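Exercise: predict the fold of this chain.
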Amino acid sequence: MTFVGKILVILIMALSLIFLGISTVVFTTSQNWLVAANAQKKAAGELKTKLDDANAKVAAAEKDLEAEKVKYEALTKQQDNQIKALEAENARQQQEITRAGNEVAGAEATAKTALAEAEARRNEAIQLREKRAAVEDQANKFKLKQAELFDRIRELERIMETANKNNADLKDRVARYSTLLRQNGLSEDITRVKGTEAAPPVVGKIKQVDPANRNLVISIGSDDGLSVGNELYLFRQDPRPEYLGKMSVTIVDPDQAVGRVIGGTYQGKKLREGDIVSSTINPRG
């Protein structure tokens, strides 16, 4: 039974006693006083018994109330302790959340920085690869050019060796021709020596040209009917036929001759090996 229920029981018992007293007064006015007195005693005894029982119940209720109060205080204290513990745990968790949030923010900032650095390094690596590819391409071109230059050097060395041999041979021939001319009472000045006849119908090719584009060696000589002073036309057939100029024969050998360009080539064009020399204006190669 709860505390409130016990209070209600006591109130009911008190009201019962009051109503009993009223009814006793009413009864005594109408019956024998002795009988009424005995009845009242008996009723009073019963009431006293009930009152004692009620007091006992009230004492028990008070005792229970005190016990409940102790239990309530203990429970309240326990709950307060739990609330404090929960509040402390909540504060700790909030601190953990704040710390974790700060760590996450720091990690995000670090990650962004790392990503930016990685992107910069990737772009730098791409640029370095592109530069390396360009350098390697340029190096390969240089190697090819170097190989071409080495080939050209070897070719020029061979040409120089041949030219030196031809020069030595030509000097020897000039010396012999000069001796022969002096012995025959002729001038040694080659420019004064003219061919007595026009060049025969011949067609040949240029074998060598000096860097000045003035003197050249051709593939036809005295065996083909050439003589010093003959004039020949210079042509080129590839990629299209074109006139280059004229030359005068200055030295003649059986299988080749040396000549000099008259005046200069047409439009200053460079002569080259393989160009046509002919005694006629319409050569047939």
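Check your answer against the key: Confidence is low (pLDDT under 50) at residues 191-196.
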